Amino acid sequence: MVGSKRDRRSGVTLEMVALRAGVSRATASRVVNCSPRVSAQIRLDVERAIADLGYVPNRAARTLVTGRTGSIAVVITEPSGRLFSDPFFPRLLRGASGVFSARDLQLVLLMPSSREEAERTGGYLTAGHVDGVLTASLHGNDPLPARLFKADVPLVLVGRPPRGISVSYVDVDNRQGARSAVEHLVACGRRVICTIAGPADMAVGIDRLAGYREAIAEAGLPVDRRLEAYGEFTQEGGAAAMARLLAARADIDGVFAASDLMAAGALSVLAEAGRRVPADVSVVGFDDSLVATSTSPQLTSVNQPIEEMGQEAARLLVEAVDDRSRAIRSVTLATSVVERASSARRSSP
Amino acid sequence: MVGSKRDRRSGVTLEMVALRAGVSRATASRVVNCSPRVSAQIRLDVERAIADLGYVPNRAARTLVTGRTGSIAVVITEPSGRLFSDPFFPRLLRGASGVFSARDLQLVLLMPSSREEAERTGGYLTAGHVDGVLTASLHGNDPLPARLFKADVPLVLVGRPPRGISVSYVDVDNRQGARSAVEHLVACGRRVICTIAGPADMAVGIDRLAGYREAIAEAGLPVDRRLEAYGEFTQEGGAAAMARLLAARADIDGVFAASDLMAAGALSVLAEAGRRVPADVSVVGFDDSLVATSTSPQLTSVNQPIEEMGQEAARLLVEAVDDRSRAIRSVTLATSVVERASSARRSSP
DNA sequence: TTGAAAGCGATACCAA
DNA sequence: TTGGTATCGCTTTCAA
User: Fold this and answer.
1) Are the beta carbons of A269 and A245 closer than 8 angstroms?
2) Which helix or strand (DSSP H or E) is residue A133 part of?
3) Which residue of A27, A100, A192, A348 shows the fewest CB atoms closer than 10 Å?
4) Domains, chain B, ranges and CATH?
5) Tell me, what's the pLDDT at B8?
6) If you measure CA to CA, which chain A residue comes closest to B61?
7) Is the pTM for the entire model greater than 0.85?
8) Which of A64, A97, A111 sits opposite B64 (nearest CB)?
9) CB-CB under 8 Å, A87 with B84
């Protein structure tokens, strides 16, 4: 690596502080680290020297000996758009950052937006820049978990890990959530219920689809693959999927979308197609995010406690960083259906 | 700092690589750093050892000697909401990240959401975790620039720095942009033109307001402080300001808002008040973001090349990191008015 | 081309 | 309570 000659940082070292305060480096270090084994007078002397010189501990040196960096990375591997358009992430971050803050850990956000960048990010994380990694929205083929595991970097996922990967995680019961949504549609008297599923390589996508199928089967409704369409977790993805579904089965009277954003896309397509919601078609989303209350009609949606997921994940990660036991822990939170205007009992036929 | 006993990282060191390859640490280091002064055979041996052992260089150790970390921080100090709701930031990041990527620098995003967190973040940055800092949306009283300057950490701002701070920056000509907007309204035959200004402690806010005043004066229109209202750069801020303005002067026929989001808020208030846009009132926003084309009617807006700002800022920062000359550089980009449906020539009176 | 060895700045052990 | 010093993992002269 490059590194032009001697371009040392501003350069106040502990050595200089010690010299100025007339003590040894060891003692100065004790003051910096708030050790109780320092006399009051000396503590004052050193503190003044620190202030006079504007001393700031060099993290690299400290990290080298302690093995700790005092920072945690949150990694969001998404094609850039989603991080900012999906309200999921800010809520997750809000939940997590509170926990890290309380532990005086600096949260740094990494958002590789291409395979190449993801590669570099992996290097950054395994090189010891952070004490632990929190990641959300993982795709099935992402090599990151294995790489971090090998490098012994603590990792916690938000969302169930893909098959074959064992790692700590926090998730909501997506399967049960999806079932509740479909059961709600059935209770509304819907008989031709389709689903707009998330990407087939993401656990959330898979689980919500599984829940949908279970509920359909249990309700004794015929299973029909033409009632299932996949899409990205975006408004556009939802719209495109809805259009395909309508083309395949014109008699659809219920829609379960795997996210509110997708449901919003579906609503716009239904409106264009002249279907009234909820009179002709009832729609249920997932997330119960702000989006749910800004569509027209407002969305019935499966609520998931996102801030809480962030908190729990952060807590799990902090534990893992502290004890380094490599134990796998997981937390699953419950969901609930929040009813709004987009779903209603079918008017008597 | 804590640091439980010997909890060393996974622990493949260069020493171990050297041993396995049967060479000295120095030679192994040369291979890792792609030095040309290594024989082909030895290079192969060492590379195999690296692969076998899964060696990853320890960043802390390397940083300690080179003074470089290979990463750059982008700091957004906002009460959390704005980062995700304002399309400005994703665009800025997209522009900047391309440049950093090309230089193999890892971009880390820091978003302190309270004074306390901002304090910690300052510590993180001055402790040598990153080679340089890019920051946007700086408020006048933010102590960060001074702190970084003292610690000799390269810094580039997006947006003109507050008075009294000298630092490199990239900005658009906000003053001229605002003038063009107002001139456009005047050309539309508007005579009672108000402005929804940004926060008075932010340079963008100040500059756009100044441009507004200049244009009003030049057009020979009476200056009236009741035609100026301040607000946050949010939809709510814009709505509240518009409501106050209408209450103070019912005869308003032109609105210049300092951001599209604010203009969107203004549009909703105007609609509620029964004012037709653009027939009764013409509205011009600032940013020419996606928001501008999703309002109804679509917004006439001042375009600013945000991706380009991000690129230029990143370029400036990379330069500063490389030569460490502490020279202050700045780049100012031009704006242009993009006409849409929210502004139109007044129908003959 | 290769190796030996001197740091980089801080922590933590062992004596005093 | 204090100081001396080995050590962390790597880069980089300086000799060989």
Assistant:
1) no
2) strand A132-136
3) A348
4) 14-66 (1.10.260.40), 71-172+307-332 (3.40.50.2300), 174-304 (3.40.50.2300)
5) 42
6) A64
7) yes
8) A64
9) yes
